[in-house]
Amino acid sequence: MNALWKYIQYGYLVVGIIFIVEGVLKWNTNKEQSFFMFGFAIFIILIFLFKRNFRRKIQDRNQ
Fold first, then answer.
1. Which of the two residues, 56 and 18, has the higher pLDDT score?
2. pLDDT averaged over the chain?
3. Is residue 41 a contact partner of residue 26, using CB atoms and an 8 Å limit?
4. pLDDT-based confidence at residue 1 (cuts at 50, 70, 90)
5. Which residues contact 38 (CB under 8 A, 6 or more apart)?
6. Alpha helices of 1-63 — where are they, by DSSP H?
7. How is residue 30 annotated by DSSP?
8. Residue 22 in contact with residue 36, Cβ under 8 Å?
9. Band of the pLDDT at 21, cuts 50, 70, 90?
10. Which residue range(s) make up the domain with 36?
11. Burial code of 1-15, b = ≥16 C-beta within 10 A, e = fewer?
């Protein structure tokens, strides 16, 4: 199960990158929605970093 979570956490990173790209594409047409996309991307990337750190702590504790 730990190997599965190792790969699922990168899904958060992919989704964050998708939101960044969407924010850049919508920059000229709708700045308000673009800022929302950037904010959500930052939030998702922070979740990725937190989950990676937490998984590493648990992995170190189990060894």
1. 18
2. 90
3. no
4. low
5. 19, 20, 23
6. 2-25, 31-62
7. -
8. no
9. very high
10. 2-58
11. eeeeeeeebeebeeb
Side chain identity, residue 30: N
What token pair was written down for 49?
């970093």
How many domains in the chain?
1
How many whole angstroms separate alpha carbon 31 and alpha carbon 43?
Answer: 18
- 5, pLDDT greater than 80: no
- Check residue 29 and report its DSSP letter: T
d(CA 30, CA 34): 6
Six-digit token string for 32: 């308000």
**Residue 63 belongs to a domain:** no
Within 10 angstroms of residue 20's Cβ, the number of other Cβ atoms is: 17
